[in-house]
Amino acid sequence: MATVTSMVSALNVTVVYRVAGEVKTFSETVVSPIVIERYLQLECGDAIGLFVPVGKGQQVNALNIEWFEIERITAPKE
User: Fold this and answer.
1) For 50-76, how does the pLDDT look when each residue is reduced to its tens digit (9 = 90+)?
2) Is the CB of residue 60 less than 8 Å from the CB of residue 19?
3) Total domain count for the chain?
4) What angle do CA 76, 46, 49 make, to 5 degrees?
5) 26 found inside a domain
6) What is the largest CA-CA distance in the chain?
7) In the chain, N or C terminus with fewer CB closer than 10 Å?
8) Does residue 14 lie in a domain region?
9) What b/e sequence results for 31-60 when a residue is b if at least 16 CB atoms lie within 10 Å of its CB, and e otherwise?
10) Range of the domain at 49
11) Which pLDDT score is estimated for 75?
């Protein structure tokens, strides 16, 4: 995963998730390496025990995610 995060400077993410029976949407550009790693882990299907940030300091269990889309923003070459 370290190789991928060094090649990606940010992710545009859109997440539709369910919490307390309500469907919510989170859409943002994430730049923090640990948050990028969590979303890439979600994309790989490794969702057991994974919590992903959905804004305002909140996290959601990946098993409650209904749908997500991730667009990579490539890091500039040195």
Assistant:
1) 999 999 999 999 999 999 999 999 877
2) yes
3) 1
4) 115
5) yes
6) 47
7) C
8) yes
9) eeeebbebbbebbeeebeebebbbeeeeeb
10) 10-73
11) 76
* The pair of three-digit structure tokens given for residue 60, joined into one six-digit string: 């959601």
- Do the Cβ atoms of 9 and 75 come closer than 8 Å? yes
Residue with structure tokens 């029976």? Answer: 21
Tokens found for residue 13: 């993410």
The pair of structure tokens assigned to 20 is 């307390």
* Identity of residue 69: E
DSSP the chain: -HHHHHHEEEEEEEEEEEETTEEEEEEEEE--HHHHHHHHHHHTT--TT-EEE-STT-EEEGGGEEEEEEEEEEPPP-
* Whole-structure pTM value: 0.84
